[in-house]
Each structure stands twice: as structure tokens, then as C-alpha cells.
Automatic annotation (TrEMBL):
Entry annotated with the keyword Ribonucleoprotein: no
Keyword Chaperone annotated: no
Residue ranges constituting the C2H2-type domain according to the UniProt record: 401-424
Name of this protein: C2H2-type domain-containing protein
Keywords (A to Z) from UniProt: DNA recombination
Highest taxon of source: Eukaryota
Entries under Gene3D superfamilies matching the protein: Intergrase catalytic core (1.10.443.10)
Length: 426
């Protein structure tokens, strides 16, 4: 099975789109970690989006059992809706996630999506299997000079001494020295402490914008009785502008403080490490960060994609099938899950898997059946009022009971509430 990728939104020159190449990505035998396998993730996302529902394919086992017809040489896998997006996020969101992942990893510089392009360009440039013309086609450059000016690292990544003396180069050491992995330090601050946040909040510019916002809000309340009642007026719009200016100044101050703290760490920590070693003192270790509990389907997907490759070919195939199915069952965030549950569209794989795992559900008092089945919320609500308010806000329309052993059609909020209480025990 070969995954074929063709870039869509690429560079333009003089208003015309540049030519793009189709890239084939085959499976790597005995791949050490499925985390780096694009085909595993792509197939999991396809099944998660039910992109193959028109051919009744709902599991990775069915995909791997497909055969090419005797009179044909290939079997294209065509999705149901070619215009739908498998992973619909903006570039700014992607860069935000990558930056956060880079900070958690301990990298010194901010990680962006352009890092991936620069890394791919370096791999292509150093490969003896790819010609200069093919490199320019892949990177959509007019000539190799663009790579030299914009992409080539300032750090020369070859062992010049070994080359001059006719010895074998130490590729591993030079790659480590020229790469960003050398900057990884898990002790580098990731988030501001409460004291540092308070110091950032006390910034003069932040306090000035805060006072303007409080004054504008008080003016709207004085004239209209409450801030919400002033919506649509010019005074309300001006107050919103001052509020946005306050939040912008606050965010800017926090970023400035965080940048200062990280720069201070990079300057002082190496000195402390050398000093402690010289005097026989123990090295300081990273602070253990608190981790929030994750849904069971996410935990299973993580364990499978980080699993080492089995030795036999059949075991490796079974491992890939399990990883693809696990990824397809990972649901989105809570708000997106609620939208999907009440969208009226065909249920994606993660919803089908979640409902099949919860049969004959008996609820605790004030526990929401829909949220429990689809992994949105498991804890009961503290009061009857909060439970009823949740049902009215989150599940106001008609729906089918998500319990596979029940499947009763529920019409209206009163029917939903009575069904949860009298049939499932809420």
C-alpha cells in the first residue's frame, strides 16, 4: 500500500500556481516507531472521518484485506467526499500547537511549520539520490541559489578535519552539533509561575489599559443598567475596543516576561551546572509537570503508535491495523464532540466505537447519559439545577438514545430528561 501526496496550496509566481509533484510514501518494513509513519495516521484519520463509508469500509482490517483484481495492476482508494478535509486546522493553530510541543520538549527556539519545510529541504539537499533539478521541483525553487540563501544552515554540518586527514567523518556527532536537539533541556521554563504572572500583570502599560477598560465598562453599566444591555450601541463598541486593547497588552506583557525568564535560564543554567559539578554537587533535575487524565481511546492510541516494531511481518501488519483502528477511534475535544453528536450527520468511527463499548448503561444520580457514552463528561452534576441546565443548553433537540441496547427515539428536553432518570437511573 502506497500513500500518494500532492501539495495543494503551494507557492505562486506572477499569479500562476507553480507545478507540484506527487510524492509516493510506501510502508517502511520493521519501522521502529509508528509515530513517524504518515500512512498509519492518514488511514486512521480517513476512518475517523468515515471517508470510506460509500464502500462500507469501517476498519483497518478491511483495508489490509483488499486485493488488486487479477487483470489490474493497482486498486485506487477513493474517498466519498473529495472536498472534505481530513484534518481541518488553520496555519496559525498548527504553529501554536507546534510551539507548545517544542516548549514541552525542551527546545530553545520556537517551533513552527516552516521548521518542517527547512528540515525536509536539508534532507533533500544532502541526499545523493535526488538531483538538483528534482530538488528545485520539490521545493518549487527557480534554482539552487534559493536554498543556499534562505534554507542552508549557518552551521557547516560536515567534519572538515576528518575530510582533510582522509578519515571517516563522524556524522552522528556533527549532526547532533548542527541540529536543534542539542538545545533540549527539560528544565527550561515552559509556563510562568504565579509570582511571575503577578509581576507581568503589574506592568504599567497593562494597568493603564486595565483602568481604561474598567472605566469604559462602568460607563456602559451606568447608562444601560448592565453591560450586556448596552450591546449594539456606540458606547458598547468603544468599551469592547478598550477591553481588546487590555487583553492585547496583557498577553504582550506575559510573552515578554516568559521570553526574559527563558533567556535568563539559557544564560545562567550552564554556569550553575559547571559550578555544581566542579564542587561535587548533584545536578539539578527537571520539575515534574502535572499531567491531566486523558480519555481511554487516546491512551490506547498513544501506546500503539509508540510501540516498537514486532519481528515478524504478520505481527507488524497486525500492529499497524491496531494502530490505525485506535487512531480512528480518538474523538475530538468536548465542544466538537457535542457538535458532532447533534449534527444529524452519519456517525464517525469514534462515535460508533464509543457507543458499542457502553451497553446497558446505569447512571449515577444527575449523570448525563450522552456525555458519559461519548466521553465528554463522566462526573455527575452537583445539583439538580446544574443537571437540568446542562440538558437544556447542550442537548435541547430530538435525539436517539446512545445506548445500543436501548436506541429509543427521544423527542424534546422533557422526554430526554425523563428517559435518563427513569430508564437509566439518573
Amino acid at each position: 500500500m502506497v500513500l500518494e501526496v500532492r501539495p495543494h496550496r503551494t507557492k505562486r509566481y506572477s499569479g500562476k500556481k507553480k507545478k507540484t509533484q506527487t510524492i509516493g510514501i510506501p510502508e517502511v518494513p520493521s519501522e521502529p516507531c509508528l509515530l513517524l509513519c504518515p500512512k498509519t495516521h492518514f488511514l486512521g484519520l480517513l476512518l475517523r472521518k468515515t471517508a470510506l463509508r460509500h464502500v462500507d469500509v469501517s476498519s483497518a482490517t478491511q483495508l489490509y484485506e483488499l486485493q488488486v483484481a487479477p487483470d489490474a495492476r493497482s486498486l485506487p482508494l477513493i474517498v466519498a467526499d473529495k472536498q472534505s478535509r481530513v484534518f481541518d486546522i488553520s496555519e496559525s493553530t498548527l504553529n501554536k500547537w507546534l510551539k507548545r510541543l517544542g516548549e514541552l520538549t525542551g527546545l530553545q527556539l520556537s517551533v513552527t511549520s516552516y521548521w518542517l519545510r527547512r528540515g525536509a529541504a536539508e534532507v533533500v539537499n544532502t541526499s545523493s539520490e535526488i538531483s538538483e533539478a528534482q530538488q528545485n521541483l520539490l521545493l518549487q525553487h527557480a534554482s539552487a541559489s534559493t536554498y543556499q540563501k534562505r534554507y542552508a544552515s549557518d552551521y557547516f554540518c560536515h567534519d572538515l578535519r576528518s575530510i582533510g586527514e582522509g578519515r571517516e567523518q563522524q556524522y552522528g556527532i556533527m549532526r547532533m552539533a548542527s541540529g536543534q536537539s542539542r538545545t533540549i533541556d527539560l528544565r527550561r521554563p515552559v509556563d510562568l509561575t504565579d509570582t511571575q504572572k503577578a509581576e507581568a500583570e503589574a506592568d504599567q502599560d497593562v494597568q493603564r489599559h486595565k483602568q481604561l477598560w474598567l472605566q469604559a465598562r462602568a460607563l456602559v453599566r451606568t447608562k444601560h443598567g448592565s453591560f450586556a444591555r448596552g450591546e449594539g450601541t456606540e458606547l458598547y463598541r468603544e468599551a469592547l475596543k478598550t477591553r481588546n486593547s487590555y487583553h492585547t497588552a496583557r498577553t504582550r506583557s506575559h510573552r515578554k516576561m516568559k521570553k526574559h525568564i527563558r533567556a535568563q535560564f539559557d544564560e545562567e543554567q550552564p554556569i550553575q551546572d559547571v559550578f555544581r559539578q566542579v564542587h561535587g554537587l548533584p545536578m539539578s533535575s527537571s520539575n515534574h509537570r502535572k499531567t491531566l487524565p486523558i480519555p481511554q481511546e487516546q491512551e490506547r492510541a498513544f501506546s500503539l503508535i509508540f510501540r516498537f516494531a514486532p519481528s515478524s511481518e504478520q505481527e507488524e501488519t497486525d500492529c499497524r491495523i491496531q494502530a490505525v483502528d485506535a487512531i480512528s477511534r480518538v474523538g475530538p475535544a468536548s465542544a466538537a464532540r457535542l457538535r458532532t453528536v447533534h449534527s444529524g450527520q452519519p456517525h464517525p468511527t469514534w462515535m460508533q466505537a464509543a457507543s458499542q463499548e457502553k451497553r446497558g448503561v446505569i447512571l449515577s444520580p444527575r449523570q448525563c447519559l450522552v456525555c458519559l457514552v461519548f466521553g465528554i463528561r463522566e462526573t455527575p452534576f452537583p445539583t439538580d439545577f446544574s443537571f437540568i441546565r446542562h440538558l437544556r443548553r447542550r442537548h435541547p433537540g430530538d435525539m436517539q438514545c446512545p445506548d445500543p441496547d436501548c436506541c429509543e427515539q427521544l423527542v424534546g428536553i422533557d422526554h430526554i430528561m425523563n428517559h435518563m432518570q427513569h430508564v437509566h437511573g439518573a
